[in-house]
Specification:
Layout: E1 3-8, H1 15-24, E2 30-36, H2 47-57, E3 64-69, H3 73-79, E4 84-89, H4 92-108, E5 113-118, H5 128-136, H6 147-157
Parallel strand pairs: 1-2, 1-4, 2-3, 4-5
Bound molecules: adenosine-5'-diphosphate.
Length: about 160
Amino acid sequence: MTTAIYPGSFDPITNGHIDVVTRAAKLFNNLVIGIYNDPDKRLLFTLEERVELAQQAVASLPNVEVQPFSGLTIDFASRVKAQAMVRGLRVSADFEREFDMAMMNKRLYPELELVCLMASPEYQFLSSSLLKEVARLGGSLDDLVPKHVAEALRKKEGA
Ligand code: ADP
């Protein structure tokens, strides 16, 4: 039985994240999306909102669940008995950041393997922060997020 975590801020979940989730769910028996409570970023959505939006987005995937977490990612991994951690890689900037985090996590929890999935070409450019900017300025969110996320963004941003 293999379990993997897919941790992140998910502020909010995008089609790029969902693409990674869908592909990772085929590789592992269980995938736990971990929503980090207090990332080093300005957040638009509360923890509860981010969890709810992610839950709705993956409701059709039976082996995927969503859990909030705080503290170290490796402690979350150990709590859900994960053998692997999934992350998505877009451009080279993601790689350097992931590499540093992976080295640190390896020191702290050597048993946890990092599995990086390359972002699909259509989502290479897609980030939650860019998405929030587009929403704030009233741009179209079609094909970037599920409908319920677009509605939540429009409500927040008043767009
Ligand atoms: P974090 O704050 O940990 O970077 P994010 O919610 O921004 O959290 O992203 C979570 C994970 O999803 C990270 O591994 C990130 O690189 C990946 N990711 C973000 N956007 C995309 C995308 N468009 N395609 C593939 N992976 C992505």
